[in-house]
Amino acid sequence: MTRSLSTGVARAALGAVACATLAAALPATLPWLAGPAQAQGAPALAQDASVALEEVVLPLGPVTLKAPKLELRGTALSRDETRAILDPAGPAPWRTRLEKLSAREIVIPVLRVEQPVGGRVQVAVYHDVVAKDVAAGRIGTLEAGGATLTVEGPGPDAAGAYGRLSAREVDLPGLARLFTEPGGPGAAPIRVYGGVTAEDIAMTGPDGAAFRIARIDARDLIGRPTTIPWAESVRALAEGAGQGAGKAEGPERSRLSGLAADLLDGIDIGGLELSGISFAAPGGGPKPNPVQASLARLTYGTEDGAGRMKAEGLKVDAASGRVALKELTFSGLSLKPVLEGLRRAAAGPLDQAELRRYAPSVGRVALDGLDVDLPADAAPTDPLAASGPLRFAVRNAALAMSDPHDGVPTASHFTFDGFTCAVPPGTTAPVLADLSGLGYTALDLSGSLDARWDEAAREVSFRDVTLTGKDMGTARITGTIGGIGKEVFDPEPMVSSLALLGASAKTLALTLENGGLFQRFVDQQAKAQSLKPEELQREYGTAAMLGIPAVLGGSPSAKALGQAVSRFVVKPGRLSVSAAAKDPGGLGLMDFSTAPSPGKIFDRLNVNATAE
User: Fold this and answer.
1) Lowest-confidence range among 4-13, 498-507, 532-541?
2) What secondary structure letter does DSSP report for 1?
3) Are 449 and 429 in contact (CB under 8 A)?
4) Which of 245, 348, 529, 586 has the most crowded Cβ, counting Cβ within 10 A?
5) Within its chain, how far is the Cα of 470 from the centroid?
6) Is the dihedral angle over the CA atoms 417, 419, 425, 428 positive or is it negative?
7) What is the per-residue pLDDT across 417-427, written as a single tens digit (0 to 9) for each?
8) Nearest to 56, CA basis, from 75, 41, 37, 76
9) How far is CA 462 from the centre of its chain?
10) What band does 372 get if pLDDT is binned at 50, 70 and 90?
11) Distance of alpha carbon 146 from its chain centroid, rounded?
12) What per-residue confidence (pLDDT) applies to 348?
């Protein structure tokens, strides 16, 4: 995707809402901002009288609106009242004057919206714009037949179009308040519109890439007047973007960061839905690699005071492989850290080490129905690295994160179910080849991980680490690692690495449940040694009973461990082993590295083992 198209794509998703809002609000204000000299009408306006304006030009921050003709129909305003509204030098604020506006409809055959971006001008031309049921400056419904999008000036061509656009319950006085009047953190929020819909959005790039959205629906846009009016803030940020985000330095960068923080904090949207999204790129070059992608639906809303985004029906098809995803959900979304970062940048330069603190926070990520199909490498550069086709799927997976420390979550809970993969006969892939030798034709895994850092205790507890394989068995681990202080989360790698050297093992518990994997291994080894499985199991059991105590020093605990492992080998069921350091501080890296033998380490542990 080219830079111009990617910019257009972002504006298609978010700019459609903004453009629809502008189309809903700003054209209706043109007659009053244009000046009294352009008004044409009778000295006294009847209820169904019309007022026409021609060649209207309205600069609004970085955006310029141009309407060759604009007409108000069905207004009861008198000539004097109309002139008072139209007077650019009128003493009353625009908000107050717009509250006096009432008309049956406002018609704009053609509306041209220009916005400079990076030395070029983006142009949107709306046609057949009609605002209906305008009362006290509030529009009941507003519609446009469509719009065309172009980019003028030197550079790669890019174009696009909108189909039908509509908005409802648009508050013009509220918009005027936001764009022209200062506010602040204590200012009351304003509901700008009740809903906006855009249909048949299409964008094309110079390389032939095409992006489409069948429909965008947004509802309940709420804005809060900021310390610097929206129009001034948008103008300053657009100028800063045109100069390059990395060029602003010192006080200017701080100023722009503060403006961006206020704007982001001053905007809230009740819901957003995009449907029928598709992207296609021809992938030119000596070896064309076309890409096609589609997304059935993308939604955003709020849940329990936090943002929630869901993508449904994702499909990607390219020469390098195919990916399908039924559903992907991000919940617990918050821009609060971003706002804090922008405000921190407004106060002075940010240290690079601080940046991770200000990333958007995500409470939970969940996916359902992932299917990946990767073809074989037809011409690998390294014959030894050649790989065959790979296809795997995941029924569902979820990762919950909380309690961030300097932007890093310190509590997490990860689960996955149904990681499935075929085990082709004769495969040479690592792990899969071993499973194939054991007679498996498919892999089906599920698991979980639950971990939390306790700052006061300087511990990380693994409350559950579980892996289960169908027709294989289950392995479950719990444990506690001490000596984990906040230094481990230091953004400087040297500091965090040194801090990890102070970690110590306090507790560890392992449970193994045989579900078929161990027996298949025994059968394979017995066949290779021309033995019966029962005979080989007895040999392994005897070796465990005698060998484990010999290696670990022959203590009662070592003998108990050897006996438990022996019983499990002879009659596989469930094996449970737990170990806890006798020293409350645990065993550190130096304890393991300086121990003369494994038995010396084992003597410093309280060990229990059982086999069922």
Assistant:
1) 4-13
2) -
3) no
4) 586
5) 33
6) negative
7) 999 999 888 88
8) 37
9) 27
10) very high
11) 30
12) 81
Confirm if 540 and 518 have CB atoms less than 8 A apart.
no
**Which 8-state DSSP code applies to residue 208?**
S
Residues 6+ away with beta carbon under 8 Å from 6: none
Tell whether the model's pLDDT for residue 201 goes beyond 60.
Answer: yes
Instruction: Give residue-wise pLDDT tens across range 153-186.
Output: 776 677 899 999 999 999 989 988 998 889 888 8
Collect all residues with Cβ–Cβ distance below 8 Å to 173 and sequence separation of at least 6: 95, 96, 98, 99, 136, 137, 138
Nearest to 117 by CA among 195, 10, 190, 255: 10
Q: What is the C-alpha to C-alpha distance for residues 465 and 452, in angstroms, rounded to an integer?
A: 12
Collapsed DSSP state (helix, strand, coil) of residue 353? helix
Report the distance separating Cα 608 and Cα 591, nearest Å: 21
The pLDDT value given to residue 17:
35
How high is the pLDDT of residue 432? Answer: 86
Nearest alpha-carbon partner for 446 in 425, 409, 473, 422? 473
Handedness of CA 46, 48, 49, 51 (dihedral sign): positive
Q: Kind of pairing, strands 165-171 and 159-162?
A: unpaired
Q: How is residue 273 written in tokens?
A: 């839905």
Type of residue at 174? G
Whole-angstrom CA distances from 469 to 362, 465, 466, 478 are: 30, 14, 10, 18
Which pLDDT does position 391 carry in this prediction?
86
Place of tokens 């033995």: 531
Burial of residue 305 (CB within 10 Å: 0-12, 13-18, 19+) is: exposed
